[in-house]
From TrEMBL:
Annotated spans, Disordered: 24-48
Classification lineage: Eukaryota, Metazoa, Chordata, Craniata, Vertebrata
Family matches, as InterPro entries: C2orf69_mit
Listed GO CC annotations: mitochondrion
Protein name (Swiss-Prot/TrEMBL): Chromosome 2 open reading frame 69
Pfam families: C2orf69
Amino acid sequence: MLSARAVALSFTLITVAKTMKSAASTTSSESRGQHAAASRDTFTGSPRKRLQKLPAVPGYVPNRVNDLLLLRPDTNNQSAPEPKEKRNNRHVVFFHGDIQNFQEEMALQPEGAQWLSWSLEQVAFTLGRRFPDRYVWVIRASRMYLHKFSCYHNFVESNMFGAPEHSPYLPDTGAFRHLRSLLSHGMERANLPNPLQPQGGADSIPSGFSLALVGFSKGCVVLNQMVYELGGARADPQMSPFIKCISAIYWLDGGHPGGSETWVTDKLVLKELAASGVSVHAHVTPYEVCDPMRAWVGREHGHFIKTLEEFGACPSKKLHFEDEPPSIENHFRVIEEF
């Protein structure tokens, strides 16, 4: 088992050479067939009986697929007086970080086994407690390089370690287009009532549909790409009705291996986010924003918040565990505390 420091280095990709050395015992080959064979439709028991695995769900481009976990709402805890159709159309989407994977896959890897309490299944349950009246979707990165580096290249151009290269909105590609199609096909496969349509204008959005987006660590690269696409998507009559359904975006201790753009700092892009009316939440820990070896992360986070405030937005922000030493454990714990 690696020391905490070695895991931290590999987890954040501060030094690729050390990362590669620590990963030498793992294999770079990946087998979707093995993955699919290990998949199962549902778990038994409660609340596991509400959890469903949906392998290889296609996005807008059929050969771009992602595995999904769906946790259905806890109907025993629903007390809201709203109509049932509205409750059934509230959704939360989560994008995970490095190392996180399905529990059975993490258990096979030396670096993953020690973090099983943060597997995708366990995170789904955690989010289910945070959002008990919503459908919780956990989107697995389409590639886990060396079984630990999450690569979201179906949403944003990325290198093998998952460092993104952001781009503006294009009508036939991009993060929003892929997400909408994933949700539509996932809802159809799970036989949910009133499913979202994969494309179309306002008449393709089901009644009461709402969406909150949550990114953790590396998963925040998807949120950042969506911010870069936001202006073009809002101007597209086929996509804007879907964008209007996004009520909140949560950044949880964002981080990736690149040397910049951990947080969006482009003023024109952030002006569009401020004008969108989406509720913005930024939760961080000293592990990311107070690391002297990656000082740009803290600076970019501050610029992100300050710029949004200058444009009239009111982002909520919190530094968690500020009186404790930076640690990966607290980095993960922000998923519980936000």
